[in-house]
TrEMBL record:
Keywords: Transferase
A single GO molecular function term of this UniProt record: acyltransferase activity, transferring groups other than amino-acyl groups
Name the record gives this protein: RimJ/RimL family protein N-acetyltransferase
Residue ranges of every copy of the N-acetyltransferase domain listed in the record: 13-181
Name of a matching Pfam family: Acetyltransf_3
Superkingdom in the source lineage: Bacteria
Amino acid sequence: MLKPEYPITTERLTLRPFTHDDLDAIHAYSSRPDVARYLYWEPRDRAAAQTYLDKAVNRTTINAEGDIIDLAVTRNDTGQTIGSVLLILTSHTHRQGEIGYILHPGHHGHGYATEAAREMLRLGFDDLHLHRIIGRLDARNTASARVLEKLGMRREAHLVENEHVKGEWCDEAIYAMLRREWQAR
Ligand SMILES: CC(C)(COP(=O)(O)OP(=O)(O)OC[C@H]1O[C@@H](n2cnc3c(N)ncnc32)[C@H](O)[C@@H]1OP(=O)(O)O)[C@@H](O)C(=O)NCCC(=O)NCCS
C-alpha cells in the first residue's frame, strides 16, 4: 500500500530506513532518561537498543493495518543520525494513522522534529490516502505538543488519567488533522 522511495530529502534533513550501523546513534538518544521521560519505555541499554533496531530496519513499508514506517532522521549538513520519525496505519477501514518522533536532545529546538514529521503527514495523506492522522502524547510533553501545533494539528482531546505509566496515572493529549485540513493548509 505504501512503499516510499528512499531517501526522503527535506531542506535540512534526510529520512531513510535504519541500518545496523545506526546502533550507536539510537543508543545515544534512547538511553537518556530525558528522552524516555514521556514515552512508554524506560531508557534503553545497548541490548534493548539493538532489539529495537532489529525491528526498525524492516519498518520501511506499510502493507496492512498496524504496520509502521520508522525512519532514521539524519542532518544533511553533518550526516549525523539524530533521531527517528514514524507513521503507523492504525486503521485500514477508517483510514486512520498516527505519527511519532524522537530526537537526540543535542538537536532539539531547531525545528527538526517538525520538519521530519511533516513528511510523515505527507506520506500519510498524499501517498497512503489517509482520512485522519493523530499524534498522542503525555499531556505534560509541551515540546511534543508544540511540534503538533506547528504542523497545524488540532488539539482534540485531553484524557484525564487514562493510562498508568511508570508508576503513575498520566493524562494523554490527542492532536489530529484531517485530509481536507492538510489539503487546505
Ligand atoms: C518532542 C521533540 C521531538 C521535539 O523536537 P524538536 O526538534 O526540539 O522540535 P521542534 O524544534 O520542531 O519544536 C519544538 C518546539 O517546542 C518548544 N519547546 C521545547 N521544549 C519546550 C518546553 N519544555 N516547554 C515548552 N515548549 C518547549 C520549542 O520552543 C519549539 O517551539 P517553537 O518553534 O515555537 O519555539 C523532542 O523534544 C524529543 O525528542 N523529546 C523526547 C521524545 C518525545 O517525547 N517524543 C515525542 C513523543 S509524543
